[in-house]
Amino acid sequence: MALTKAQKVEVLNNLKDLIKDAKSVGFTTNTGLTVEEITNLRIGLREVNATFTLAKKTLIKLAFKEVFDIEIDDSLLPNQIALVVSNEDAVSWLGKVNDFRKKVEDKIEWAGSYFEWELKNAEETKVIASMPSKETLLGRLVGSMQSPLSSLARFFDAAAKDLEEQGKTKVGELEWKKEESENKEEEKEEAKTEEK
Fold first, then answer.
1. Domain enclosing residue 191, as ranges
2. Which of 55, 105, 154, 173 could form a disulfide with 168 if both were Cys (CB 3.0 to 4.6 A apart)?
3. Is there a single domain that holds both residue 168 and residue 100?
4. What's the longest Cα–Cα distance across the chain?
5. Cβ atoms within 10 A of the Cβ of 115, count?
6. 8 A C-beta contact, residue 64 and residue 19
7. What percent of the chain lies above the pLDDT cut of 90?
8. Which residues on adjacent β-strands are paired with residue 110?
């Protein structure tokens, strides 16, 4: 259905409002997506504060020109195009779209993206989409920071048990015993060497 001039102006203004504060924008081609599938994708994207919007290519190009002063080449926007826009996390929504693609047997494909103030082609967008989200990276960081602390806690726990078992009051006494046993090992090694 053709849009009237007033409708086009309204859609263009909505697109400009949508992308002006975007951390990143993805362009997807959508072949055979049902209304139910689009609804499910939109629900999933809301979890990461991103939106999915179908729009005419000419209006998308015009919105990008007016907001970012960027000319989008027709090759970046083949077929029917939708915008996936995130105003918060520049990466997490990409993973949501990737997960959705697997569920709908690739009825949705990457056409490109606007990421870190640059236009990216489909291949570059796929690479970015495979990156872990901010939450995942933070989880990994916390895990790696906890590892040394966990090791230290295990050491103190073991030292406390050794103190209790041996009736000692200082960890230094345990270390002395360890050094003593190491000296005995060294003496045994020296004796073996002398025998040869």
1. 137-195
2. 173
3. no
4. 102
5. 20
6. yes
7. 0
8. 28
